[in-house]
Amino acid sequence: MLNSASVAPTSPIALPANQPADRFYLGGARIAAFRGAAAEGDHVPEDWVASTTTVAGFDDIGLTHLDDGRTLRAAIAADPSAWLGPEHAGRFGADPALLVKLLDAGERLPVHVHPDDEFARQHLSCRTGKTESWIILAAEPGAQVYLGFHDEVDPAQLASWVSQQDREAMLSALHSIPVSPGDTVYVPAGLPHAIGAGTFLLELQQAADLSLLLEYSGFAVDGPRDGTLGIGFDAALRCVRHDAVSTAELDQLCGRWDGTRIFPAAADEFFRAERIAGDVDTVLAAGFSVLAVVAGSGGLSWTGADAGSLDVRAGSTIAVPFGAGPVRVRGELELLRCQPPR
Question: Contact at 8 Å (CB) between 95 and 207?
Fold first, then answer.
């Protein structure tokens, strides 16, 4: 459990798992193994880390709860500048503008798409859409993801595939990308995509739960209703990008976590990530962030108003408030630092 002092906006907080139950696809075992815990079911494939975002259609599910009984959302709302920094709070208010997830695909996810900001505002009464990205943490042999059409698809053809639930046609129209640990994929809103079975990843995304399912047959979900967020397919399909994604563009979207950049520069307006690995002794500049320790162990220390330290190990996830000031990271470890838009 978290101690009472850890909910102050001047101390990093170690976070337990936060897995919404009864999702419509299989998974969860890899999250439990990552955290060193017992699996709590086979339909808990997502761990919403440091979340102020709710599952679509719910008022509370998905939110991170702190030890003092508050949600992280409420704690940030009480002091946005201390949690997020004055510049961020001046632009986004009490919204971190970031959702981080651990995702364990126990089966292939359906082909789906996320709307961009303009579509979300016009059709879904949401401030933002959902551009996202993936950092592959583990992958079974042969694991793959799917992203973007390799040839232009006529809107009427796509509507027919969706109406007939022709999953083979949809999958065959998408680029198939083999993945292994350390691969990264940037997924702009509008690009149809799917995550293949046996893939375990860290996801950074805009802070909205907005998925429009092009494929739903065989999954425990009402596709025409919940799969379109209530707006119906005639409207939902308008957010899909139908043109071909070239090989050159695909090369820009896909990368490695040990490269110069984890994600392309276009991602900076949505989120940022960096990898810190090896025999580490470094100082992270003050700023709200979500840390995920992928391997090894070490410690964090800070000298803000509530100076302190925190031991971390593989499987730890930590919310770091702006008010903690610069945070020193030491140890033999591999860590991913996730941050809001620049």
Answer: yes
Instruction: Say what the pLDDT of residue 8 is.
Output: 66
Instruction: Kindly state the average pLDDT of the residues 100-129.
Output: 97
User: Does position 269 have pLDDT exceeding 90, yes or no?
Assistant: yes
Task: Give the pLDDT of residue 3.
Answer: 42
Pair (173, 289) in one structural domain: no
- Verify that 103 and 251 share a domain, yes or no: yes
Categorize the per-residue pLDDT at 6 as very low, low, confident or very high, splitting at 50, 70 and 90: very low
Q: Long-range contacts: 299-304, Cβ < 8 Å, 24+?
A: 299/329, 299/330, 299/331, 300/12, 300/327, 300/328, 300/329, 301/327, 301/328, 301/330, 302/11, 302/12, 302/326, 302/327, 302/328, 304/10, 304/11
* Amino acid type, 141: P
The residue ranking higher by pLDDT, 1 or 301, is 301
Q: Which of 267, 292, 322 is the last residue of a domain?
A: 267
C-alpha 193 chain-centroid distance? 15
Q: Are residues 325 and 230 in the same domain?
A: no
Number of structural domains the chain divides into = 2
Q: How confident is the model at residue 261 (pLDDT cuts 50, 70, 90)?
A: confident
Average pLDDT over residues 306-329: 96
Phi and psi, residue 121, nearest 5°: -70, -40
State whether 276 and 310 are in the same domain.
yes
Report yes or no: 325 and 302 within 8 Å, Cβ to Cβ. yes
Q: Give the tokens for residue 303.
A: 């000298």
For strands 193-195 and 272-284, give the pairing: unpaired
The residue segments making up the domain with residue 319 are 272-339
Task: Name the amino acid, one letter, at 221.
Answer: V
Q: Which residue has the tokens 């998974």?
A: 27
The phi-psi region of residue 238 (left if phi > 0; otherwise alpha if psi is between -120 and 50; otherwise beta) is alpha
Given 241, 267, 293, which residue is the final one in a domain? Answer: 267
pLDDT score, position 209: 97
CATH number, residue 212: 2.60.120.10
Q: Give mean pLDDT, residues 205-234.
A: 95
